[in-house]
Amino acid sequence: MSRVVATTTLWRPTGPEELALVEASGWAAWPPRLPEQPIFYPVLNEDYAIRIARDWNVPASGVGYVTRFEVEADYLARYPVQQAGGRTILELWVPAEDLQEFNQHIVGPIEVVHEFRPQA
After folding, report:
1. Disulfide engineering: 53 pairs with which of 1, 12, 64, 83, CB 3.0-4.6 Å?
2. Would you say residue 2 lies in a domain?
3. Which residue, among 85, 75, 53, has the nearest Cα to 66 in the 3D structure?
4. Per-residue pLDDT, 74
């Protein structure tokens, strides 16, 4: 009998390069951070992820994606929720050195739920 694990839904706005690496993992893991990226920032609010993908990723990369994924809730308890602005601007700050372990606690696939491109 399999055990049921409580999960928390997270979102991550991303550009095409990072998304290609997620796809290469079989939609199972986030790639290692670059040296200038000491923290991995998943967000707790879909609307916030949409704003970042649309307003930041599209101008920077020509396309922005919002991904959704589930992570074991007990594992996430080690990362306090960070309020990065208004009351709905909520993130987790996962140190780059924790990302491989973080990936082991993802439950199910990482899914693309929104795609944004420049307005014609």
Report:
1. 64
2. no
3. 53
4. 96
Query: Residue 1: pLDDT band by 50, 70, 90 thresholds?
Result: low
30 secondary structure, DSSP code: P
DSSP conformation class of 71: E
Arithmetic mean of pLDDT, 39-68: 96
- For β-strands 39-40 and 94-95, DSSP reports them as antiparallel
Rounded CA separation 109/28 (Å): 5
| CA-to-CA separations, 55 to 48, 97, 114, in angstroms, rounded | 10, 28, 13
| CATH assignment of the domain containing 54 | 3.20.170
Could you list the residue range(s) of the whole structural domain that residue 105 is in?
A: 7-116
The reported pTM is 0.92
Count structural domains, the chain: 1
What is the CA angle 14-16-21, rounded to 5? Answer: 90
Q: Rounded to whole angstroms, how far apart are CA atoms 66 and 19?
A: 10
